Protein 1
Amino acid sequence: MKSNTWWVEWPTLVLLVATYAVWGGAVFWLASWSVLLAVIVAALAIAQQSSLQHEVLHGHPLRWQWLNEAMVRPSLNLAVPYGRFRDTHLAHHRDVNLTDPYDDPESNFLAGRDWAALPSWAKLVYRMNNTLAGRMLLGPAIGQWAFMRGDIKAPSRRIVMSWLAHGITTVPVIWLVIQSPMPLWAYLVAAYTGLSLLKIRTFLEHRAHEQSRARSVIVEDRGPLAFLFLNNNLHVVHHMHPQVPWYDLPMLYRSGKDRFLACNDSYIYPSYGAIFARHLVRAKDPVEHPLLHRMLDDRMPPA
């Protein structure tokens, strides 16, 4: 449901314009003063655009979805096609499959047989990836490799068209960067850093739990990261009300906090600072899904 009669969600629209302005300022102005500062600001704008792409795939900010998508289709991160992000994320919203290594496209778990088949060096990499530091350093590369490998193995027409559209819309972004004072290598660092920032949000967004309703986290952060992630830190609220715009999620959470925490079995952290303190170099979860067989049994129809 849209937030007003005219079906224009102004906070999202204004933020979208501001994000592109910040990106342009970083690439065309800051880069002539300090490449390092330009990388940092561009990375923030790239992460913000990814959060806005998430808003768009859920039907915001306008009533015309084709126009919503046109505004965010050129992915500033260069790596993830908007169409693939949209399709895999909407599949992720089938909550009964959350964390399933096969049926949840955004799961960070591996099935036991896949984990057992990995060589020792790969197991070490995945274990490092299960710390927050490892997820930020290695996560974008591992995620991109797994994402692209899956698409190459099963290249449906829809997948091919998404990648073609991504290639076409990425060309102007790269062309603008080439015309700017920002070196292309520096922009690639910014793009990777932007994806790395997003890994902070997704690091423990979901946990293995027998009840699907209890698999999504609440992080009661109200600082810069919450804004960068457009309040998606209130993740169980988003999963229960995916059509609510980002700026209404905090009020919705406050008005029904007890209900949300009862629903997710009190899977809650006070802030991202607490998550950094607990899990920067210490894994929260095993790589192998600990409850997969039980989850599959629960989804089987009765005989």
Note: Confidence is low (pLDDT under 50) at residues 1-5.
Protein 2
Amino acid sequence: MTSTPSENQRVVVVTGAASGVGHATATMFRDAGDVVFALDVNPTVPDGVTYVETNVAIKASVDAAIAVCAQYGRIDVLANVAGIVQFGRFEQIDEAEYDRVLAVNLKGPFLLTQAALPHLKAAKGCVVNVSSVAGRVPQPYAAAYGASKGGLTQLTKNLALELVPTGVRVNAICPGTIDTPMVSKVAESYPTDLEPRISERLFMQMPGAIPPGDIAAAIGYLASPAAAYVTGTVLAIDGLMS
């Protein structure tokens, strides 16, 4: 058990905290002095946070993790960052792969938010979901991934509307290409024979990949008192990809 939070500390839950945006986000909240629970299947989370082994696609695992995170009776911030990237031709996506993408990217935030909701209500806290540019506009070879992120974007809006009376805010961030090892690995196998009209639209954007810290900073804003009147917002950080 971590030390009891002071009045100025928030209880923050970050999924996917072992790498990329999740790691940067957990680090940011830790550095702000918050009590941070880092949920992941991988234990390589930032120092100074509490690691909770969690498979976000499995309800029993999520429920057990939230029980640990809610030990102080409240959760102030839930950052649903965990996700997997999948690109490939539609006709080559098998059922198991499709199910896995939706389970992690869409079912995971659903399970986490539902389990955490009583504790978020107690704190009048907030949820920040990390969606994607693929949840806003079509992306080549991203049928499964786009479906999962489009669903997460709409889930965010629906929950924001439903939860207004409780004081719980729900927002989403839709990043473009992020500079993470996971994205780089997928990019190596990305189909290269794009039609000119698709390629032209896809790359009509600011050059370079987005540092994970930039996305973490946006999560920090949406979780802050400065965003007290921000809910149901989908914030694009994509260099004009959408």
Note: The CA atoms of residues 63 and 110 lie 12 Å apart.
Protein 3
Amino acid sequence: MKIRTKIMLLFAILTVSIISVMCFFVYYLATQYSFEDFYKRLEIRAYLTATAAFPPVGTDTLAYNYIRDKHLEKLPSENEYILRILPGNKIEAHHYIGLQPEFYQAVIREGRETFRNGDRFYEGILYTSGENSYIVIVSAVNEYMSQYMTDLRRILLTCLTVALALIIGTGLFFSRYILMPVHRIIDRVKDISSSNLHLRVEAHGGNDEIRELADTFNNMLDRLEMAFETQNNFVSNASHELSTPLTAIIGEAELALSKERDCLSYRAAVSNMLREAERLEHITRSLLHLAQTGFDGKKESWDMVRTDELLFAVKHVIDRITPDNKVEIDYSLFPEEEEKMNVLGSFQLLELALSNIVSNAVKYSSNRPVSLALAATNSKNIIIVRDLGIGIPVPDLPYIFSPFFRASNTQPFKGYGIGLPLTKNIIRMHKGEIIVNSRMGEGTEIRVELPSA
């Protein structure tokens, strides 16, 4: 079932339910009013009957009877009863009326009482004439109510039927109108494929859910377009980086085999091939690490890692790779509580990720001082690496985590553009963030935030 139909049905059911409840209350209140109105008629009849039977001194009985017969409408199946009250509140019953003794006692006690038996209504009043008291009872069949309620039911049902038709029509119109922007978005998205990812969804109107939906689609298309571009760049750069050492190895081998050479020439050719093979092995291993860290890490068995020990291990690795480095650990931000310096993860992977960052800081700062700091809160551990290097050009910042991408000012430095993408994947596996701030010619600050254990 389409959403448009669901909206129409929900709107119709809700509205019809509200109208039905209102009709029920109208019918109920009309019924109660009809009862009260008929009882009031019977009460007037009862007082006129009593006054006509026992007129006050100086009044004319004929006048009451004339008013009752000429100006009051005769009620259907009307009956009148006058019962004298004997001593002890006993009733002198000359006629069988079919009322319970409680009815008479209620009239004596309250002065008025009503009773209903099907369509026949009874009204009893207490009337005193001289030294005697009487119970005057008037009964009639309420045929007016039956006809009135029948007409009311017919009117309410007719109105409900017309309202239902109008509600369904209005619901269809408004559901179509409300969902029209969604249909435009659907038609636009159907036109977008891998060959035209530059297209975007347009949403007209205010700041509503449709605008939010369009923005969400556009953000998704931005990510897809960047992913496609990254993939294309990765394939192009990977093929280039892999083909270069292979070409050198093949060339050296062909040159060595082209004619007889002396031992030193063969050794030089084999050395060149070994150097290019090591380069190829390094690129291949880096690509393998990069592919392995593309998983979400759910199957990894994480351990408790002390971030201060992690920093010391990274410093040890850098000292071994670059003995004359000027990396210094800044202890000023270290937390006093040791339990705050715990994260869940893989010590080896985090060591690899941070070693890549610090190694880049040492390399691109030409071995100038590099600061390695640690701060911790209740929710996260923050590792900060600052250098005084060449910095990263602003246009290159969005692409520094793309495989094989190298900033435009890094040509004098050796590298393959795999370290930062590998670091990004490792930090992402640990549900962390990596934030880069850089100024050309002034240096770079990289902040790694990991959730505390």
Note: The first helix runs from residue 3 to 53.
